[in-house]
Amino acid sequence: MRPAIIVIDIIKDFTTGVLGSERARSIIPRVKRLLDEARGRGVPIVYVTDAHIENDREFQLWPRHAVDGTPGAEIVEELQPQQGDYHLKKPRYSAFYATGLDALLRELGVDTVILTGLVTNICVQHTAADAFFRGYKVVVVEDCVEALSDEAHREALKYMREIYGAEVVSSQELLNRLGEGP
Length: 182
Ligand code: ZN
Hints:
This protein is an alpha/beta fold.
């Protein structure tokens, strides 16, 4: 297994900004711990974040958010990318849509995506679908993703498990596994 950790939309607008919530902020320390460990183990980390144009069509469904170049589109302070990490911008829910993610993962020889970030039933779930369509094994870290309600979170985890064959694990389980080495 050659994994990469995908960090989806842990940006200011989704934590403290216009679409922010306490639920969303709650995952930050656990994601940080996971990323610190992963870097030490040489596991690639790819941030993929919303970066909308002004008047993006998505704003017909959601309040204006994550406009490219604005503070709201920035990754939260606690999880700033480090040297060697990757950062791609996305215009839609899926981290694969109109980004270079698939090409990057293939270049790195990755066969397994470990999904973290926001929110479980939208951007994480759409990314899981696109990963599955492209032949990647999908792992979702259940305490490093969150949704606007517990129900939405649980439903999405169940859906990803049943429909995309995703493995749902806790961050502690994953840390233990990474600690075992290759
Ligand atoms: Zn968006």
